[in-house]
Design brief:
alpha/beta; Rossmann fold; 33% helix
Length: 427
């Protein structure tokens, strides 16, 4: 559930065409309204064979439209009015037949008519295909999917997996929570369009023996929130994650690592392919100098074992020193004197931006407070020194980053989302 009301003020037309996945769309309506959106449901006749409009009327709090001859709108033109009110149209499930109808520009029932008549410059059309794997992989459907993309339609999924028919393959509709994330991302400003962003997140684990190791309390939440926010802002994102228990944000390429050296060896070859490197990982400064091949046993030992430690490579400083270094952002988790430590780290790591946060106050939590420190300025997020949830902060940080990249002439060719959304600053 979104606590940030990410879709506050958005009006979504949710179209249902025929498919067993209609049952998932009931949950989707709940998620959308919980996220602050208003939802107008349109169902095709085939959709009504799978689930009744009563369910959707109850969940959306609005009468459902099913016919182009519905005379309720004042102008008696439901297809025009519903499309004009919408910020986006999402058809979920989108059946093979419905996609074929859209390709042909058919307009003999309300949903396809509304899609055709929508103002395309400010109301995108998103489809969540759902069908049997043979239907999805059929050349006719693949041709239609490509034609729809070429026409500017955004296809979400389908996913692979177990299908209602008992077969396994591509064609499952995305889950309601995934569709929610896609819609939320759709409305974010594409500040980082075309940028390739590499992020490290989470702790590292430095093995002592096959069952023990040294790690820290980083949950990875801030780094994962940044990965999501960067993707939402239009970037291509690679996330190198230490051992954490977090789902991969949609659309993000994730590479799992364990130790600082694994992280270093994974990041270094990737650095040159990225425009920005954001090091949020809490990398262990030291590791045991020697790894015991077998579990260190307690039995028969009179004195506790001692370990020699050796220093880990500094990933951020190494990347920042590369000849073609991406724009580097470091994180500083401190327990006191945030500004002084962040400034010192800026110089020590040779990076243009350090983001300070109070480690003990943020590790494992959903909220945080950031201090953005560069050579000349510092900026607190939120501005009033309070705290905010990590995704809200990550979005603001991405916006700030985009401004810094633009100032350095590091802008890449990109485009804003249709109907450029409002993006109020956080306070
Ligand atoms: O040196 P310190 O740990 O205080 O610096 C923190 C910043 O440096 C973070 O951005 C962290 O991800 C990065 N770092 C790193 N490799 C290390 C230690 C820290 O990339 N070995």
């Amino acid at each position: 559930m979104s606590e940030r009301a990410d879709l506050q003020g958005r009006h979504i037309v949710l179209g249902l065409s025929g498919g067993i996945a209609c049952y998932k769309s009931a949950e989707l309506v709940r998620l959308l309204t919980q996220a602050g959106a208003t939802v107008q449901v349109i169902m095709t006749e085939a959709a009504e064979a799978f689930i009744t409009s009563v369910t959707f009327q109850a969940l959306s709090g609005r009468p459902v439209y099913t016919s182009q001859w519905d005379s309720r709108p004042d102008n008696n033109m439901a297809h025009i009015q519903l499309g004009r009110e919408a910020d986006v149209i999402l058809v979920a499930p989108a059946s093979a037949d419905f996609m074929a109808r859209l390709v042909q520009g058919r307009a003999d029932e309300l949903l396809s008519l509304t899609c055709l008549a929508r103002p395309r410059d400010r109301c995108a059309l998103l489809l969540a295909p759902a069908m049997n794997r043979e239907m999805w992989s059929h050349p006719a459907t693949q041709r239609n999917a490509q034609q729809l993309r070429d026409d500017g339609t955004i296809l979400l999924g389908p996913a692979a997996g177990q299908q209602a028919c008992g077969e396994v393959g591509d064609g499952r509709m995305l889950e309601p929570a995934e569709l929610l994330d896609e819609l939320v991302a759709h409305f974010q400003v594409k500040h980082l369009a075309g940028q390739r962003v590499l992020i490290t997140a989470g702790p590292t684990f430095e093995a002592i023996d096959p069952v023990r190791g040294i790690t820290n309390l980083s949950s990875g939440k801030m780094g994962f929130a940044i990965a999501r926010a960067a993707h939402e802002a239009g970037a291509q994102v690679t996330l190198v994650a230490g051992p954490v228990h977090l789902p991969t944000p949609r659309g993000v390429r994730r590479l799992d690592v364990r130790s600082a050296r694994d992280m270093h060896d994974t990041v270094l070859p990737l650095a040159a392919e990225h425009d920005v490197f954001i090091a949020t990982a809490a990398v262990a400064d030291w590791r045991p100098a020697a790894l015991s091949e077998h579990k260190i046993k307690k039995e028969g030992k009179k004195v506790a074992p001692t370990f020699e430690l050796t220093e880990n490579p500094d990933i951020l400083a190494t990347v920042a020193a590369l000849p073609q270094a991406p724009y580097c952002v470091g994180f500083a988790a401190e327990s006191e004197q945030l500004l002084a430590h962040a400034r010192a780290k800026l110089v020590r790591k040779g990076v243009p931006l350090i983001v300070g946060n109070l480690g003990p106050a943020t590790f494992g939590r959903d909220d945080n407070a950031l201090l953005l420190v560069d050579a000349d300025t510092e900026r607190a997020l939120p501005a009033d020194g309070s705290s905010a949830d990590k995704l809200t902060l990550a979005r603001e940080l991405m916006r700030d980053l985009a401004t810094r990249l633009a100032r350095q002439g590091r802008v890449r060719a990109g485009h804003a989302a249709p109907g450029e959304p409002t993006d109020p600053p956080i306070h």
